[in-house]
Design brief:
The complex is a heterodimer of chains A (114) and B (114). By secondary structure, chain A is mainly β. Chain A is built from no helices and 12 strands. Chain B has 114 residues and is mainly beta. Classes of the chains: A mainly beta (114), B mainly beta (114).
């Protein structure tokens, strides 16, 4: 079955600095990849997805992610972090042959300090 | 939250009692999902539905059952709750058109089993 690893439990950055939240995946065949964000006491909100095509995907709130097939990675990035970006971020993977089995990483807590 | 409501939002119950959580959607989507969120595990799929009376098991289905008698409602039942089922439960939907669509999540139900 497919799986996702988010190697960092916590990422701390200063406001205005670039941020990266890492994600690697394992799946048979081609993947569908997703990033979600969760604010306290809320459900997950969709940020962006990679299906096919351009390896650099742009999403909501200025976030983008880069798909790297050789490294099986899908890192989330933002050029300039905001304090309001502080939240829990989840990477998820789905195999193209099973649209109902989505696997999530354990999550990375991002803290942006003023 | 994409027209998804969950009830109750919070529940405290005792070991051995039955519990039913409800997910309601207003947009007539075919696919609905139940996940549980636990620290260090991210979200894990319990059961999903691909239509009225059509359901299937997910990664962590033991101890849970589901029912879908109407398109808009997807019920999750813990027949005899255990302390290991203390968790936050999220319902999600996936738009019908297109196999690669993302899932949208409800606000969650926090369940505590004493």
């Amino acid at each position: 079955a497919q799986s996702v690893a988010q190697p960092e439990d916590q990422v701390n950055v200063a406001e205005g600095n670039p941020l990266t939240v890492k994600c690697t995946y394992s799946v048979s065949g081609n993947p569908y990849l997703f990033w979600y964000v969760q604010y306290p006491n809320r459900g997950l909100q969709f940020l962006l997805k990679y299906i096919t095509g351009d390896n650099l995907v742009k999403g909501s709130y200025g976030f983008e992610a880069e798909f790297n097939k050789s490294q099986t990675s899908f890192h989330l990035k933002k050029p300039s972090a905001l304090v309001s970006d502080s939240a829990l971020y989840f990477c998820a993977v789905r195999a193209i042959y099973n649209n109902n089995d989505m696997r999530f990483g354990a999550g990375t807590r991002l803290t942006v300090k003023p | 939250d994409a027209g998804i409501t969950q009830s109750p939002r919070h529940k405290v119950t005792e070991t051995g009692t039955p519990v039913t959580l409800r997910c309601h959607q207003t947009e007539n989507h075919r696919y609905m999902y139940w996940y549980r969120q636990d620290p260090g595990h991210g979200l894990r799929l319990i059961h999903y539905s691909y239509g009225v009376k059509d359901t299937d098991k997910g990664e962590v289905s033991d101890g849970y059952s589901v029912s879908r008698s109407k398109t808009e409602d997807f019920l999750l039942t813990l027949e005899s709750a255990t302390s290991s089922q203390t968790s936050v439960y999220f319902c999600a939907i996936r738009a019908t058109s297109g196999d690669y669509n993302e899932q949208f999540f409800g606000p969650g139900t926090r369940l505590t089993v004493l």
